Amino acid sequence: MQDKFEIYKAYKHKFFQEKIERGVLYIVSTPIGNLEDISFRALRVLSQVDLIAAEDTRVTSKLLNHFGISKEIISYYSGKEERKLAKILSLLQSGKSIAITSDSGTPGISDPGNYLFSACVANEIPMRVIPGATSVIQALVLSTFDSKKFFFQGFLPRKKGRTKTFSELVNYKMPVVIFESPYRVEATLKDIYEHFGNKEISISRELTKKFEETKRGTLREFINKKIKITPKGEFVIIINNKN
Hints:
By secondary structure, this protein is an alpha/beta fold. Helices cover 36% and strands 20% of the residues. The longest helix has 13 residues, at 81-93.
């Protein structure tokens, strides 16, 4: 069976005659763990743009190298967005095409990008989103909770505003989605219990990777270690706050 790289090369030969638009910012979704989740469209765009603005140049370089793509990359991460803004806007206005990538998933969703996107709108620079994998939808599906409606919180404030955020989240009578790191997940579960009570939750980690796992139970079961979690990888916590 052909691997994805071989299929990609065949696809590239047949379909890459289609060219990207000039003076456009491409918001490119990248895999959340498994490189096979990249789309052919994303690979075509990354191979054709003039420049890639990456949250972490090392992560994006690994992706490009895997698929044999050579491209100029500049760093574009939180805290550096303002300093890089003028250069990126100038290049776009001169007709250059630029792709922005985050370490995983879609830029602007709990990742750098919104500052640049707003500036593009203000300067009438067109943008195109190249969709891809998302841990939010995967975790919601795996939770088995009724997710016709859900609230996406993403990462919680670490200190300032944390209590206020929790007091707001309890009012959403639907599944609530929270991102958390392995270093703070246990403390966050205790905070959730304090504000939500003994709700059902689902915890997913390492989604799309070799050691992917999802565990479901009550907050008390997780806090009391009746259900154990491995503190490795990025976590998606779903609180079943519908009832």
